[in-house]
């Protein structure tokens, strides 16, 4: 049992020394044993990889900066960035449609997310690559079999890169729609109502009040999607998209260094994902602001409308 606070103060006033609490952590041998086993396993695995002559480290070093590998790396970066930009735009559009008051827009957005999230990405990539079997040509003109002003052949228009971009971007848009919708719904509805009461339009409310606060919820999963997209581009190899894995496969079909070329591709994927993870960390710190700072920004955005301007 502990004594009363008054008794403690009286003992201190009487000059009695204050004895600090000398807490001792209980021994945890299980933690030390687990750490020793994990360290031993990592050292043993690293040693096995380094001294294994079948991995052909000289070949790995030789092809790590090969021009063909770097070209495939550049295609991977292009696919990732373009797919995420287009996917984010589609996701924002679909999220706004889901929150619309029109049942037609909500239904169209729900159908889009349902279909592209419900079918495998690999199937979608193969479908876009073979879209010419369904639509031999694309054109601009009068609908319902009317005359066409401009027409393109599908086999010439849908290259492996274009098919890969279509598959990755449209699929990503379906997932980004849910992320953006969750971020928008995380904002207090009272702030939207206050902004509308001041005369702001729906677009102004979304741009100046809702999105600045929703970014704190949207940014982390978007960064994860970007990192995942870097690795997902490897699926483009099924349609010979000329990205990193496709180039690595073409090389090992000629020199038969299968494992070495796969290690080369893996090293570059790790480098890209590491750089993206560091960038994600700094972006999250940039948007990780307190609620007071966000409210201050929102009030600053609302200030012109509080003076009678619409």
TrEMBL record:
GO-annotated biological processes: amino acid transport
Gene Ontology cellular component annotations, sorted alphabetically: ATP-binding cassette (ABC) transporter complex
Main location: membrane
Kinase in keyword set: no
ABC transmembrane type-1 domain ranges (all copies): 73-280
Topology of this chain in the membrane: Multi-pass membrane protein
Pfam families: BPD_transp_1
Top-level taxon of the source organism: Bacteria
One term of GO molecular function: transmembrane transporter activity
Family label: Belongs to the binding-protein-dependent transport system permease family.
The protein's name: Polar amino acid ABC transporter permease
UniProt organism field: Streptosporangium carneum
């Amino acid at each position: 049992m502990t004594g009363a606070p008054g008794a403690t103060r009286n003992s201190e006033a009487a000059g009695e020394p204050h004895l600090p609490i000398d807490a001792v952590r209980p021994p945890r041998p299980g933690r030390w044993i687990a750490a020793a086993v994990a360290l031993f396993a990592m050292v043993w695995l690293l040693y096995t990889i380094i001294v294994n002559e079948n991995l052909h480290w000289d070949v790995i070093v030789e092809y790590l900066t090969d021009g063909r590998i770097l070209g495939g790396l550049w295609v991977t970066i292009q696919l990732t960035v373009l797919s995420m930009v287009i996917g984010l735009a589609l996701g924002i559009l679909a999220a706004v449609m889901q929150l619309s008051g029109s049942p037609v827009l909500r239904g169209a957005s729900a159908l889009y997310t349902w279909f592209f999230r419900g079918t495998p990405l690999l199937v979608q990539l193969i479908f876009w690559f073979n879209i010419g079997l369904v639509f031999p040509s694309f054109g601009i003109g009068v609908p319902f079999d009317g005359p066409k002003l401009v027409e393109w052949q599908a086999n010439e228009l849908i290259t492996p890169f274009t098919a890969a971009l279509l598959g990755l971007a449209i699929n990503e848009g379906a997932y980004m729609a849910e992320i953006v919708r969750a971020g928008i719904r995380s904002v207090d509805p009272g702030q939207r109502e206050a902004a509308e009461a001041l005369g702001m339009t729906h677009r102004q409310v979304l741009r100046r009040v809702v999105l600045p606060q929703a970014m704190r919820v949207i940014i982390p999963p978007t960064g994860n999607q970007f990192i995942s997209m870097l690795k997902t581009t490897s699926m483009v190899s099924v349609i010979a998209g000329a990205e990193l894995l496709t180039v690595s496969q073409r090389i090992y079909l000629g020199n038969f260094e299968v494992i070495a070329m796969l290690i080369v591709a893996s090293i570059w994927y790790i480098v890209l994902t590491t750089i993206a993870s560091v960038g994600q960390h700094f972006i999250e710190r940039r948007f990780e602001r307190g609620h007071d700072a966000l409210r201050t920004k929102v009030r600053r955005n609302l200030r012109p409308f509080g003076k009678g301007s619409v």
